[in-house]
């Protein structure tokens, strides 16, 4: 059974991500954890520690969170009517990232699916700060869904890589899980600066070929382009339905996303984006 975490702030953007998840995994037996974290705006640690019982605001905010979670759960059940799917709601007094980390470990989550838009809705901020923090800090595959994206079967999957990663099964398994559901074609895109692959890179590429041996997989190579440019050009030539990257500290993923200020990413994405951590939490 797949276990999927759906963080929600009850926005249209988060509903869009939830409906994508329910459609992507419609043929899989899944347990969805619908999570809302809340911290009252005038929350003062000292006050809560001294008089928790009289801190009625927390109760009011919690009630609101529980009610809205229940509304979302009912909407999910009514819209998708899928007997293979069960939904558990979680209203938690915490900030989002620490709570996601706890849930991922405790529930052994397979994927987190969330919207990309920050609460500001500013167009120039592509990924909301929360999404980027999840990419950086949570050891679990994350599927980030662009604002307003309608579900498409992931027929063409784009996987840019510099072959600098010593691929392990835990890197590739989240990709295989999805592409095997839809017989997707995997397009591995190597972006280089015109140099030939080193022996190490060739060895990593061979490992990758072994993992994808049962899937339709094409290997592409482009040189003297920056990664965002190479991805954009590829998308213009071929309609990509899912972009995948491994977040390796030494890879171009890190350069692509985290060189700029954390919440100002100049990489414009119009398809769902699966980010796989280089290291994952060992399953119990």
From TrEMBL:
Superkingdom: Bacteria
Record-annotated UspA domain positions: 1-146
One Pfam family from the record: Usp
Family assignment from sequence similarity: Belongs to the universal stress protein A family.
Name recorded for this polypeptide: Universal stress protein
Organism annotation: Hwangdonia seohaensis
């Amino acid at each position: 059974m797949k276990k999927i975490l759906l963080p929600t702030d009850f926005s249209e953007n988060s509903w869009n991500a939830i409906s994508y998840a329910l459609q992507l995994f419609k043929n899989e037996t899944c347990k969805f954890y619908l999570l809302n974290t809340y911290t009252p705006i005038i929350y003062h640690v000292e006050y809560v520690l001294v008089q928790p019982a009289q801190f009625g605001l927390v109760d009011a905010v919690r009630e609101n969170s529980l009610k809205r979670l229940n509304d979302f759960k009912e909407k999910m059940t009514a819209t998708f009517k899928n007997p293979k799917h069960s939904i558990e709601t979680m209203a938690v007094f915490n900030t989002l990232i620490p709570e996601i980390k706890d849930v991922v470990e405790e529930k052994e989550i397979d994927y987190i699916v969330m919207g990309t838009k920050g609460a500001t809705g500013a167009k120039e901020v592509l990924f909301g700060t929360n999404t980027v923090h999840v990419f950086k800090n949570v050891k679990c595959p994350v599927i980030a869904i662009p604002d307003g994206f309608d579900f498409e079967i992931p027929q063409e999957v784009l996987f840019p890589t510099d072959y600098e990663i010593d691929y392990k099964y835990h890197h590739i398994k989240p990709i295989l899980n999805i592409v095997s559901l839809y017989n997707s074609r995997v397009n591995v895109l190597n972006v280089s600066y015109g140099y030939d692959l080193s022996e190490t890179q060739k060895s990593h590429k061979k490992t990758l070929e072994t993992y994808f041996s049962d899937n339709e997989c094409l290997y592409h190579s482009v040189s003297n382009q920056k990664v965002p440019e190479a991805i954009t050009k590829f998308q213009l030539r071929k309609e990509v339905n899912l972009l995948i990257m491994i977040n390796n500290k030494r890879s171009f993923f890190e350069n692509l996303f985290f060189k700029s200020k954390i919440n100002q990413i100049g990489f414009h994405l119009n398809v769902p984006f699966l980010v796989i951590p280089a290291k994952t939490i060992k399953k119990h």
